[in-house]
Amino acid sequence: MLKIDYLSLPGLPVLSFEIAAGECLAVEGPSGSGKTRLLRAIADLDPADGYVFLEGVERRELPAPQWRRRVRYAAAEPAWWGAAAREHFPPTAKLDRLLSALGLDAELLDRPLAQLSTGERQRLGLIRAIADEPQVLLLDEPTAALDAQNAALAEELIKFQVLAGRILILVSHDPGQIARLAQGHLLLNRTPARDSDSSQSAAA
After folding, report:
1. What does the pLDDT average to over 99-128?
2. What is the DSSP string of 139-204?
3. φ and ψ of 146, to 5 deg
4. Is 92 helix (H, G, I), strand (E, B) or coil?
5. In the beta sheet, which residues pair with residue 112?
6. How far apart are CA 103 and CA 123, in angstroms?
7. How many CB atoms lie within 10 A of CB 74?
8. CA terminus-to-terminus distance, the chain
9. Contact 59/18 with Cβ under 8 angstroms?
10. Interhelix angle 118-130/148-163, nearest 10 degrees
11. Percent of the chain with pLDDT over 90
12. Check: CATH 3.20.20.450 for 2-79+134-203?
């Protein structure tokens, strides 16, 4: 269980909600409404007042790197610190299978990242987020740079994460994708005073 309790971010109402293992919550709202800031706060990448619990453990009870191994934020355009993708992946026998699931060749891991397309980097970023099996995945526009065929492959991989019992929070501007992946919805609004219910998630 991921529990958000009185989480406070500038420009948003105080947020409290829960997500059970094996569920996907879609965070929706206009551009600038705070969707990415919310994901980054849950991952303890940005400071925020309030509490975030995973299985009863609050984020500040663990060192930040340990929390982020459990609660993984995946940006739409992932950051890379090495020249090639392979430097960013933990050693795992699942890597070839994950690459195949997203239609990628293993040789891409050794090519300079600057030579890869935005879509290839995005798919590699999704694999990097999933490879060491975090308990929580915070996916920020995970298919924004993909064509329909590759987006469908990514959605299947995301669905499998839910079936495997992981907790997912999804930000997407694609209503169809939200309908296919999410069981609950959280609406954010730029003007909190008008949206007193935006701290609640509801079943789809």
Report:
1. 96
2. EESTTTT--HHHHHHHHHHHHHHHHTT-EEEEE-S-HHHHHHH-SEEEE--S-GGG-TTTT-EEE-
3. -105, 150
4. coil
5. 84
6. 9
7. 21
8. 19
9. no
10. 10
11. 85
12. no
Does this model's pTM top 0.85? My answer is yes
Q: What six digits make up the tokens of 115? A: 């030579």
DSSP state of 112: B
CB environment 119-152: b (16+ within 10 A), e (fewer): bbbbbbbbbbbbbeebebbbbbbbbbbbeeebbe
User: Which amino acid, 134?
Assistant: P
On the question of pLDDT at 133 being above 90, the answer is: yes
Confidence (pLDDT) at 90: 78
SS3 187: strand
* 163-204 residue pLDDT tens: 999 999 999 999 999 999 999 999 998 654 443 334 444 333
Contact 39/104 with Cβ under 8 angstroms?
no
| Per-residue tokens: 47 | 């400071």
